[in-house]
Specification:
- 53% of the residues lie in helices and 8% in strands.
- It has helices at 3-13, 28-40, 44-50, 63-91, 101-105, 128-137, 172-182, 185-188, 208-224, 230-243, 248-260, 263-277, 290-303, 311-315, 326-337, 348-364, 371-388; strands spanning 97-99, 119-122, 150-155, 158-163, 190-196, 199-205.
- The strands form two sheets. The chain has a four-stranded mixed beta sheet. It has a two-stranded antiparallel ribbon with strand order 5-6.
- A hairpin with a 2-residue loop joins β3 (150-155) and β4 (158-163).
- The longest helix has 29 residues, at 63-91.
- It is globular.
Length: 406
């Protein structure tokens, strides 16, 4: 781990009550690396705010650029909150839930410091068409973006994702149990209020236990696909910190995680937060090795949020669980990039030929990663992910049922 990365973690740990680190004696190049890393990890605005007290240490010609970038993030955050408020007004009495985003920020010490992306919201399947038509009639456009779980709607400064279900739910028995658990999402919804600095919003959010499961599903999906960022880890760490004494852990969430094969993943993410960010140390992660946490953190710093730091390595996840060989790797890349092929497989030959030609030119001009390198990366990542035992019931952590979290 580079010293800029270690310093970034110590900065973030101060949000969990740890002592703030001493101002660093960085060179200009090291400051650039710290700033770039914070943006790659989607914690840019929070990092800038935490460095304000020793901004005199930042090179004079660098600080104005950093400040402008931070202001851009603040403006985007305000746009997201405004778009969400307008959406809620537009929906009127129609039931909805806000997923992630501001629902996660509500667990932060200062919600205004979380970097936001878009507005994810869920409505019942019976209302999907009605809400889609409503958004289109109000100036939003949908150009077929999205997948089987959500549809994207856009207009200037607004990016909405209309979900049919929380993302990351698997098939099989584990998925059936999770869907059954989520059947009460609407009934158990809570009213959240975020009133912090420039963010002002009141909205319907999942109940805490269900929000926790949504976070874990989202995290495992992105970790096993393009990559996990420190923002994901903070979302989970702050959730644990704020709810650690709630009875739902023993009564509801931990038993469900064990039944659906997510207990190991939850334990590893929780211990990683504790080791590197100083978040609370619950009992249920007691047998997780620090080496495994180090592997998770190495993966996070190698990839960044959604694989922003290394697109080639992030694409390797699409092939890590497919058959070996170049053709299997290429097939994995095509299917990941064009999910429509799952529904319309007749398009596969034309799209595959197009991607093969584009890929060949990309490798030739150094803009695409060679498949041989992707295969090596896939094997490395698979070793780590196998240890997380995602959706594997009866794994080694089944020996430790729902202990007290505190």
């Amino acid at each position: 781990m580079k010293k800029e990365q270690a310093f970034l973690l110590s900065l973030l740990a101060s949000q969990f009550g740890k002592d703030a680190p001493a101002p660093p004696d960085f060179s200009e190049e090291e400051w650039k690396h710290l700033i770039a890393e914070s943006f790659y990890q989607a914690v840019g605005y929070l990092t800038f705010s935490l460095c304000e007290s020793f901004k005199d240490r930042v090179p004079a010609d660098l600080y104005p650029h950093w400040s402008r970038e931070a202001i851009k993030f603040m403006g985007r955050n305000r746009n997201v909150a405004t778009a969400q408020n307008e959406l809620i007004a537009l929906l009127g009495n129609r039931p909805y839930l806000i997923l992630k985003g501001l629902a996660s920020a509500a667990y932060y010490p200062d919600p205004a410091l979380r970097d936001f992306g878009d507005v994810d919201f869920l409505v019942d399947e019976s209302l999907q068409n009605e809400v889609s038509e409503l958004l289109l009639s109000c100036g939003y456009q949908s150009a077929g973006e999205g997948n089987d779980h959500h549809t994207v709607f856009k207009k200037p400064f607004c990016h909405l994702e209309l979900h049919r279900a929380p993302p990351g739910i698997p098939t099989g028995k584990a998925g059936e149990r999770i869907r059954a658990y989520f059947s009460s999402l609407e009934k158990n919804a809570v009213l959240q209020t975020v009133d912090s600095d420039y963010l002002h919003a009141t909205f319907r959010a999942p109940a805490p236990a269900q929000h926790g499961l949504i976070l874990l599903l989202h995290m495992q999906h992105h970790m096993l696909e393009e990559g996990l960022g420190l923002r994901h880890l903070l979302d989970w760490g702050f959730f644990v910190a704020k709810t650690k004494d709630e009875p739902f852990w023993q009564e509801e969430l931990l038993p469900l995680l064990e039944q659906t094969g997510l207990l190991t993943f939850a334990a590893v993410m929780t211990k990683t937060c504790a080791v590197y960010l100083g978040s609370p140390e619950p009992e249920f992660y007691r047998d997780v090795s620090t080496d495994l946490c180090a592997g998770v953190m190495e993966d996070i710093f190698a990839l960044g949020n959604f694989g922003m730091k290394d697109r080639g390595r992030s694409h390797s996840a699409a092939i890590s669980n497919r058959k070996k060989g170049v053709f299997g790797a290429f097939h994995g890349m095509v299917m990941e990039k064009h999910p429509v092929l799952h529904r319309v497989p007749i398009l596969y030959p034309a799209i595959a030929i197009w991607e093969l030609v584009a890929y060949g030119f990309g490798v030739l001009f150094g803009k695409r990663t060679r498949l041989s390198k992707l295969l090596r990366s896939a094997r490395e990542r698979k070793k780590l992910y196998d240890c997380l035992a995602v959706f594997q019931t009866g794994n080694t952590r089944s020996d430790h049922p729902a202990d007290s979290i505190s």
